[in-house]
Amino acid sequence: MDFVKGEVLLIDKPLGWTSFRVVDHIRWHIRKKLGVKKIKVGHAGTLDPLASGLLIICTGKETKHIDTYQAQIKEYTGTIRLGATTPSYDLETEINQTFPINHLNEELLLKATQILTGEILQQPPIFSAKKIEGERAYEAARRGDDIKMPTRKVTIKTFDIININLPDIDFRIICSKGTYIRSIAYDYGKILNTGGHLTALRRTKIGDFSVDNAHSIESIINLIQNHI
Fold this sequence. Notes:
Shape: elongated
Strand content: 25-35%
Largest sheet: 9 strands, mixed
Number of helices: 6
Helix content: 25-40%
Mean pLDDT: 91
């Protein structure tokens, strides 16, 4: 493997790891093995610490193609819990409101997915890495600042309900670059008048790359140590 010339590594990111931590961990091991001070390593699309799944890592000259990989469509699976909201739209923060769900039925649940399919206007969560006036939004949110997140257009190609076990809804979503699945969970609950937040998320595909072909961090480190 030639990490300086460039490699594309498919990583199955575990829960609890930031995307930056994965990059930093792999970079450290490559530098140590090669005995170099610097080597380019980057990822093609952030995954939240509470999400698992496919993370594309590029090294060396392959980092020039990060934007190309990042622009490809993504596929996710996960779980939305109805009946409650959180400020972060996921489990990072505590529940701040609860709502009844006894009016829900399969017809309403499926109709709400149709409303959120196609080109939609989405507002990113305030607890996100998006920069507002040069600062990460989550930094201001944690201070309790009043933040107004700008909306943007994203495309939801597919929003399928895989399983209904109220208050939980298991889903599969195929979407464009820049889509916040946490915002989909929040908007889905809002449409249903129940509130909603994300309790599980896994990225399964980026373009033609699949998590089925991805390596664990441990196996990638083993490759670095034994195949350079």
